[in-house]
Design a protein that fits this description.
single chain, 229 residues, alpha/beta, Rossmann fold, Arc Repressor Mutant, subunit A, 2 domains, 12 strands
Length: 229
């Protein structure tokens, strides 16, 4: 079954060129011209990958990426005319899987797309119905919800993936490199600092005292693990 890609850019000529090239390779292509339209489409439809420009009307690409990551793990490649490192850090920290700077080589874009789709194509089409509990934390894999001591906790998609990984591997130490792979599923442009950011935010949501965590613990010089007590 052909993969479907959403191309988001406010320049019709770029969308036209990407659409033509991707359709030549057998992809189905949808399009959006601003951030608000892109967000609505992503949350209302099922896409295999999103090509998302950073500079967009209505909502910026980074804002779109951040909001999408609260609900979905759809792979996202950011496209931008800027080459500043701060944009890369922002885009990747908020959940982008990869980042390309305009003007880009269409062959490289297609190679990046194939790599990401290859990494995600082996996943099951839907989550299993499963409840996992550890201490005061309960997660529902089917609807990707979480509670701590009976109260609902709003986790982003990547935060949920992390806590599920930890809770199903209690006591196992994960290096930052291993966690980065879990967060990104594509790590050629990874930054290990991103792992620490996600761990800090996750602790703020699930720990009674994030400064003295009871669940997600640090193995100094190695990485992180979930308490097996």
């Amino acid at each position: 079954m052909p993969k479907t890609i959403l191309v988001v850019d406010d320049e019709p000529s770029i969308i036209k060129g990407l659409r033509y090239s991707l359709e030549q390779d057998g992809y189905n292509v949808d399009e959006a011209l601003d951030g608000e339209e892109a967000l609505n489409k992503i949350l209302s439809n099922s896409y295999d990958l999103v090509l998302l420009d950073v500079m967009l009307p209505a909502l910026s690409g980074i804002e779109v990426c951040q909001r999408v990551r609260e609900k979905s793990d759809v792979p996202i490649i950011m496209l931008t005319a800027k080459g500043d490192d701060i944009d890369k850090i922002l885009g990747l920290e908020y959940g982008a899987d990869d980042y390309m700077t305009k003007p880009f080589n269409i062959l490289e874009v297609k190679a990046r797309i194939k790599t990401i789709l290859r990494r995600t194509s082996g996943k099951a089409s839907g989550p299993r119905k499963e409840i996992i509990t550890a201490g005061g934390i309960t997660i529902n894999v089917a609807n990707r919800s979480a509670t701590v001591d009976g109260r609902d906790v709003n986790l982003t998609a990547k935060e949920f993936n992390l806590v599920k990984l930890f809770m199903t591997n209690r006591g196992k130490v994960f290096t930052r490199e291993m966690l980065l792979e879990n967060i990104r599923k594509y790590n050629q442009m990874g930054d290990l600092r991103t792992v620490d950011v996600h761990i800090r935010r996750l602790r703020e949501k699930i720990e009674k005292d994030p400064a003295k965590p009871e669940y997600i613990l640090t193995k100094w010089g190695v990485g992180y693990y979930f308490s097996d007590k």
